[in-house]
From TrEMBL:
Residues 6-121 form the Semialdehyde dehydrogenase NAD-binding domain. It comes from the Bacteria. GO terms for molecular function: aspartate-semialdehyde dehydrogenase activity; NAD binding; NADP binding; protein dimerization activity. Substrate binds at Q157, E210, R236. This is Aspartate-semialdehyde dehydrogenase. The gene is asd. It is an enzyme of class 1 (oxidoreductase). NADP(+) binds at T13, G14, A15, V16, R41, S42, S160, G161, Q316. It comes from Merismopedia glauca CCAP 1448/3.
Amino acid sequence: MSNSYKVAILGATGAVGTEILELLASRNFPVSQLKLLASGRSAGKTMEFKGESLPVEMVSDRSFDGIDLVLASAGGSISKELAPKAVSAGAVVIDNSSAFRMQPQVPLVVPEVNPEAARNHQGIIANPNCTTILMAVALWPLHQHQPIKRVVVSTYQSASGAGARAMEEVKQQARAILAGKEPETHIFPYPLAFNLFPHNTPLNEQGYCEEEMKMVNETRKIFNAPDFSLTATCVRVPVLRAHSEAINLEFNEPFSPSQAKSILSQAPGVKVVEDWQANYFPMPVDATGKDEVLVGRIRQDISHPCGLELWLCGDQIRKGAALNAVQIAELLVK
């Protein structure tokens, strides 16, 4: 590949696409030409990139002619249809949907964990699920120091995970409830404002939802550990942006909280946030707009001599999606 690249953002007007656009500018990605692609509903709009107004084009089969790199965030069905066409046109696709993540020939990459995997692609590289990315960034440095035996994770997932329209729906529901009216639901199956519910993706025969199994299967692939022991409970909470996770780790030997804190304080993509006197630890409002995964409340599990507890928050749109995709792109052009 050359020193500058013709780049297309597929799903440019969505929450993740908008963030990708900003990150390409702020991180000075070597773009020689930028094409913004979306559905016909968004075609004709303009978006700013480095002081220039660029038109949003309706995506078509010819949209990828001459393009080197496609950053796709338009949903699984669209990716399944268009990603192979982009590859046939000569582009590399970094896809943010779940369409290709578990295909054996498609690398699933978190740059802080398995950057080498990005080189072994056949035209498509998959971006993991947001909750998986945030967890992997925090767990990998600990796992490298002492292999993790078992993970129990509970997620507290914001509305942003369902997109910009879901975030707006929560705001409207809150206004309605505060005005004494019944909240309306269109994106979520139940009201989320002043409420929470288990993640509403389809359940398997064991009672685990799709979102929970993504965390299990994707972590195993990223860590290259097919038998990695992990169980998850995913919950949607009335937070606009940034996901949180409570994680219990079991090791074969004791792992002191002070040692874990020291390792995480030096880990790429992690920022330790702990003020025990003030009872101040990572919060979604602090993680919003940040690149790092905020980790804190690192403590001994009092129920197990080899157990460790930690709490994290991370911006789902940023590190959980857009930033991770741009970091993968940066690996390709180094």
